[in-house]
Amino acid sequence: MHSVDPAIVPKKKLPNGEEIPCIGMGTFGSDRYDANQVAEAVAGGIKAGYRLIDCAAAYGNESEIGKVFRAAFDEGTVSRKEMFIISKVWNDMHERVEEACKKSIADLQCDYLDMYIIHWPYPNYHAPGCDADARNPDSKPFSVAEFVNTYRQLEKLHNQGLIRHIGVSNMTIKKLEAVWPLLVIKPAACELEQHPCFQQQALFDYLVEKDVLPFGYMPIGSPERPDRDVFPGDIADIEQPEMQQIAAAHGVHPAIVALKWAVQRGQVPIPFATFEPFYYSNLLCTTQDPLTDEEMALIATLERGNRLVKGQVFLWEGAKDYTELWDED
Ligand SMILES: NC(=O)c1ccc[n+]([C@@H]2O[C@H](COP(=O)([O-])OP(=O)(O)OC[C@H]3O[C@@H](n4cnc5c(N)ncnc54)[C@H](OP(=O)(O)O)[C@@H]3O)[C@@H](O)[C@H]2O)c1
């Protein structure tokens, strides 16, 4: 098994000055990999040198991943303090955040969470693995009051020491603007979809200006995403000729180019991979052979507005279409 010394992996800073790795490992099996397969990848990932793992209750694999963490701590592969473990509160637990958080901590066997994220800014629930047409009649539009009520519960957990940082996810500038003055403990990070053909430059700039660290999900363009997130007209980032041309110049797969771009641009990518040579090379690529300024500039031109997670399963009755979830005109 190949590994990268975590000490040489470049670092990013959270608002409190704490340094974290510039890349993490995702754990969403995309309805294709079962919980044990994902847990096995996490076990391999820790051995390969990953120290930041992006988990979520909704991924349905926290107890299997928890066994991997426990074994890694017990065997001395890594200490709890060396790890940065993230989990997320799912939409059906917005009123019972403490219960959800304690369950994730127990399942992950990690004593506390380094970051706890509000997975979606809606309490709108859909069952894991549902299909694209599934709708919940109880779904509602975004509400500042509801969001802040959920956020307050995370602030309480932060004050209790159960979570070290608060994160948000799937937000827009409009929603952040509306809630920002009401947040006592500001979020340390925001997870958002980010890949070369969907860069979200305005939201990215807004987060940086607010000193919120962007975490880029689906950094490779999620080629194996669930069927409900596949639409005609979607663009495959890694098949873009420019990505392939840069990849050839560096002798790597275009996935590696997408990750190098993400790290050099400033977000923390959290790629998922089950195949050891993939997750090893994803980590290694952050330590060597950076993209040139010209290559970075070329990738900046690849923005195509190619949002992959449209989130249509969270829509409420009367909503026009998924663009309402994202406050797009
Ligand atoms: N906050 C949110 O709402 C949210 C939403 C979506 C995702 N996320 C997080 O973001 C993570 C990443 O997103 P994702 O898994 O959908 O997409 P992704 O990381 O962009 O793509 C993962 C896919 O890329 C392939 N891959 C990985 N490394 C590769 C390499 N070096 N060369 C070629 N192919 C490679 C993997 O292949 P194999 O299948 O063969 O391993 C896997 O199928 C998730 O796991 C989750 O933790 C968060």
In words, what does this structure look like?
The protein has 329 residues and is an alpha/beta fold. The protein has one domain (16-324): Alpha-Beta Barrel (TIM Barrel), CATH 3.20.20.100. It is 34% helix and 11% strand. The chain contains 10 helices and 10 strands. The strands form 2 sheets. An 8-stranded parallel sheet has the order 3-4-5-6-7-8-9-10. A two-stranded antiparallel sheet has the order 1-2. Helix 1 crosses helix 9 (276-284) and helix 2 crosses helix 3. It is globular, with a radius of gyration of 19 Å. It starts with 10 loop residues before the first strand and ends in a 29-residue tail after the last helix. The model has no long low-confidence stretch (mean pLDDT 96). Bound molecules: NADP nicotinamide-adenine-dinucleotide phosphate. The site of NADP nicotinamide-adenine-dinucleotide phosphate has 31 residues, from helix 8 and helix 9.
Quick overview:
The chain has 329 residues and is of the alpha/beta class.
**What is the straight-line distance between the termini?**
49 Å
Helix/sheet category? alpha/beta
The residue-averaged pLDDT reads 96
Radius of gyration: 19 Å
**Whole-number count of domains:** 1
Q: Fraction of residues in helices?
A: 25-40%
Q: Please, how many helices?
A: 10
What share of residues are in beta strands? 5-15%
Q: CATH-wise, what's the superfamily?
A: NADP-dependent oxidoreductase domain
Instruction: Return the CATH architecture.
Output: Alpha-Beta Barrel
The major pleated sheet works out as:
8 strands, parallel
Give the neighbour order of strands across the main sheet. 3-4-5-6-7-8-9-10
N-to-C SSE series?
Answer: EEEHEHEHEHEHEHEHHEHH
- Total strands: the figure is 10
The coarse silhouette is globular
Question: At the first level of CATH, what is the class?
Answer: Alpha Beta
Give the ligands present: NADP nicotinamide-adenine-dinucleotide phosphate
- CATH fold field value: TIM Barrel
Unreliable spans are: none
